[in-house]
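Hello everyone,

My group is preparing for a crystallization screen and wants a predicted model to guide construct design. The compound we'll soak is fe (ii) ion. Before spending weeks at the bench, it would help to have a computed complex in hand. I've included the protein sequence and the ligand's SMILES below. Output in structure-token form would be ideal because that's what our pipeline reads.
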Amino acid sequence: MYAQMVDTGLAKVEDLDALPPAERAFPARIDADVKIEPQDDMPEAYRRTLVRQIQQHAHSEIVGMLPEGNWVTRAPSLKRKAILMAKIQDEAGHGLYLYSAAETLGVSRDAMTGDLLAGKVKYSSIFNYPTLTWADIGAIGWLVDGAAIMNQIPLCRCSYGPYARAMIRICKEESFHQRQGFDIMMAMCAGTPAQKAMAQDALDRWWWPSVMMFGPSDAQSVHSAQSARWKIKLLSNDELRQRFVDQTVPQAEYLGLRIPDADLAWNPERGHYDFGAIDWDEFYAVIKGHGPCNRERIEVRRKAWDDGAWVREAALAHAAKRAARTDDAAEAA
Ligand SMILES: [Fe+2]
Ligand SMILES: [Fe+2]
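Reply:
Good plan to model first. Here are the tokens for the complex, ready for your pipeline.
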């Protein structure tokens, strides 16, 4: 998802009964649904896993601004431009809430940015695909923000307080994002045959990367069990993916668009849609840095970091001056 393949660093899932009595308080608290707060004792592996997960999530929000930023100057009307700018600003805000949530676990924002720019920490694979037409902005809001909501609503109930609380506001904004995307798709599908063809082309290109966003299938997802035990992953990758497909297929039908999957069919016995095989080779290639835009995305972030150096320096100099003035005033008093 926005945080994909987060490794807990543990060889096997903790078993409450097998733990020494002194170490049972933490899992017992998780089981009782009492939120963990920054000042509370927590196992190092829990802290580290959360730092990785929240950090990946924050980077995804920030890098996710780039494919859409590409269309701010070319949005088809002033109204669409204003809506898109508001949406992109929301994503910056999501990044900030999440960096702040991660900082409560004792990691600095500078260190997290350093890890992103050094390629040590990933962001969601979806943002390494290009936005070729205006319809792509519709498809991203509809599919990518739609998938984000699917993943993030359960996280509002996750065990770590600052992360759960950040998610509540983020989810409210994500539902606006999903609707603005669907609204673009509706306008294009009700437009000229050329506009409808653009909408179909965008769906054709974004469908499979969106389905892949939920990460490897449960059978391959070796690190999920401990995260589920800690309640920082509340539904499995395959459960979330199935929910996404079930929700999205009727929306595509409403738009009069065809989902690019010959195996997609309603399964009355399961009460869910069956869907075709996912090209995991593509997913892993993109994760490893070989997607269409990986290099470009990191270059843009690196430039933003370098160009912002003078702002950081000025802010630090200003803070130091103010502190010195306060010290002088205290001495004079
Ligand atoms: Fe977001
Ligand atoms: Fe969003």
